[in-house]
Fold this sequence. Notes:
The protein is α+β, with helices and mostly antiparallel strands. It has three helices and eight strands. The radius of gyration is 17 Å and the shape is globular.
Amino acid sequence: xxxxxxxxxxxxxxxxxxxxxxxxxxxxxxxxxxxxxxxxxxxxxxxxxxxxxxxxxxxxxxxxxxxxxxxxxxxxxxxxxxxxxxxxxxxxxxxxxxxxxxxxxxxxxxxxxxxxxxxxxxxxxxxxxxxxxxxxxxxxxxxxxxxxxxxxx
Length: 153
């Protein structure tokens, strides 16, 4: 689960550099913790973009110091299986194939892979095998796009 505090600290600097802050993940434990910051831009992300944002994020984290203990900072593009975090992400990718994991079961299941057919307010609808599942955003543990891989060629 993304920390609203971390997003509040990092969002202004990332946005000021002209990038979209897609998601933030703090994973691992002890000395093996990794803070992953995913950024995007309409023309894509380069290694130079990641380095520029890494310097900005590192400076903001040094000032605010919201994470106790050691961690490694990684800045990258969201990739083809882009995480969906904010309500606007779900609205933007309506009509796309998604994979959603919920905290609590919805109609007896917690894992959904299907078409994101609706996104409005605090809910999304994912159609799995033609069956619509109405899922509260507050109940979503993880959501990602499912990459469309072109098998032609």
